[in-house]
């Protein structure tokens, strides 16, 4: 089946089975490999993208559930040059170790800051449910707080 998707501000046409996860369309057909595969059951968050500004686990989102008017933003579309406040805070505070989960974690953090300009640690813990095998959660919290202080609300694409 043919689907029209708006990804990072660009309209894209793809052919896929209706139950194909958005993750595989993004990675294999569009070539946006910053969104990672982790668990395949929407638990770990490595595949997090924004759909209309909402952090969404793309491994469990069938492509057929995305309307042609909906806006998808991947880590590649968050900022063209890494200047998004969350990305800058991640670098400044050396958040990642292995880095595998970080694109999904950054996308979840950016969506949180879009909704809540000054999240508490409880807010962060409640919204950022991504799993990091390296356990950099304290640095994640610190980076989200820094991004909130430095950049205010996150911006999409």
Automatic annotation (TrEMBL):
One of its GO terms (molecular function) is 2 iron, 2 sulfur cluster binding. It comes from Inquilinus limosus. Gene3D superfamilies: 3.10.20.30, [2Fe-2S]-binding domain. InterPro entries: 2Fe-2S-bd (IPR002888), 2Fe-2S-bd_dom_sf (IPR036884), 2Fe-2S_ferredoxin-like_sf (IPR036010), 2Fe-2S_ferredoxin-type (IPR001041), 2Fe2S_fd_BS (IPR006058), Beta-grasp_dom_sf (IPR012675), Diverse_Oxidoreductases (IPR051452). Pfam families: Fer2, Fer2_2. Keywords: 2Fe-2S, Iron, Iron-sulfur, Metal-binding, Oxidoreductase. This is (2Fe-2S)-binding protein. CDD domains: fer2. Residues 1-78 form the 2Fe-2S ferredoxin-type domain. It comes from the Bacteria.
